[in-house]
Every structure is written in structure tokens, then in C-alpha cells.
Amino acid sequence: xxxxxxxxxxxxxxxxxxxxxxxxxxxxxxxxxxxxxxxxxxxxxxxxxxxxxxxxxxxxxxxxxxxxxxxxxxxxxxxxxxxxxxxxxxxxxxxxxxxxxxxxxxxxxxxxxxxxxxxxxxxxxxxxxxxxxxxxxxxxxxxxxxxxxxxxxxxxxxxxxxxxxxxxxxxxxxxxxxxxxxxxxxxxxxxxxxxxxxxxxxxxxxxxxxxxxxxxxxxxxxxxxxxxxxxxxxxxxxxxxxxxxxxxx
Length: 249
Hints:
By secondary structure, the protein is of the alpha/beta class. The chain has one domain (9-19, 65-244): Rossmann fold (3-Layer(aba) Sandwich), CATH 3.40.50.150. It is 46% helix and 18% strand. The protein has a seven-stranded mixed β-sheet with strand order 3-2-1-4-5-7-6, sandwiched between helices. Helix 6 (98-116) links the parallel strand 1 and strand 2 (124-129). Helix 5 runs parallel beside helix 6.
């Protein structure tokens, strides 16, 4: 019998695997519902017809929605973080904290690898969430996941343009996940960019499905002067991977 893809990709306890399976199923059910499909369609119409990317009523609609990164994307993200040895990760757009579990597993395991090699190492995932009820749900799921992830995550509640623009951020950021309201992607990147190490990975979700909404971000990330090398990964909705490789004198 073949090994499930999740077990092949992700090193985690059975408890964490079971939790993630349950959360991804709940998120997928929401995303496939007619009401959610209609919500996304209305959002695109509002953008094309009125240049309106968001409306206050949308916050109310999304308050109980997972909008979690798809499971296959999470597996890719975890492996990319493990392969790059990322120790300090920023997640813009935590929601219920599903993708955060993958990032925290990667950081914890990378730290353990460093220590096993006789090096002093520490790491953390700086996660962001504006909605207090979502932050509470995320913390509850991390507690359910247990010590494999809980001690690695620092959740910052509030406006991420403020919570990420502080002196207590990691001096060097190895990995940035942008899974957030699309107009916030570029401002977030610009805040984090001075801390990105050379070779840092930046992932942006739904860059295919929401491409018009990402225009400013995509224009920036593709401009050679800004130092990124980028490819589009053909997952559902699109997933863009960029590597920060600025020219040095």
C-alpha cells in the first residue's frame, strides 16, 4: 500500500497529522461551498467594475472562514523551509493557524538539526492576525498540536503594518509567507525586505486566481532592480515562489 503524500512530506507525530487532516477538510468544505464561491466572484466583479478590492462587509463574511493554504501548498512550503534551513519565518495572514503549524514544524526541526551538528541555534515563526477571534482559534489549534509547534510561534495581533514594523523583529528573515488580503502583500514585503537574507524565500498564494488584485506586488517582484528571482508554481489558484538574490558589489 502506498504511503499518503502528507506522511511522505511532513515529519510530525500522528496527533499533528490527524489535526491537520481535520483542519484541511474543514477549510476545503468552506472553500467549495456556493456561498464562498459567490463571495470571491463578487469580489472580482467589484474590483473590475469599481476598482474596489475590499469592502467592510467582507470582514464579517470572512470572520469564521479558515481560508487555509491548501494542503499540497503547505507540504511544498514545509519542504522548502526545511531544504533552506529557515530559522526565522514571517507569516503574513495567519487566520486559524493551519499553515503556521507547518512553518513551526520546519523551524523546530531546523533548529534541532543545527543543535545536533553542535551549533547554537534558535528560531521562531512570527505570525500575524488582525481578527481577535481568529487569533484565539489559532492558539487553540496550536495548543492541540502541542510542543512540536507551540513554543516556536510568536503571534502578533493587530495591524501587521504596525506589528511587523518593530525593533523586536528577527534581525534576519529566511522565509516570508504572504497569504493575506492582496493589497497588503506589497506593503508587507517592503517592511520585511530590509531583513531578508540573501537567498530568502518569499511565497505568495493565489497569484493566478487573484492576479489582477496582485498587480502592484507582481510589478514590484518582477522588476530586476528589486532583487528577486521568481517562478509560478502551478498549484490550484497559483503559488508564486520568489528568492531574494540582490546584486552585491
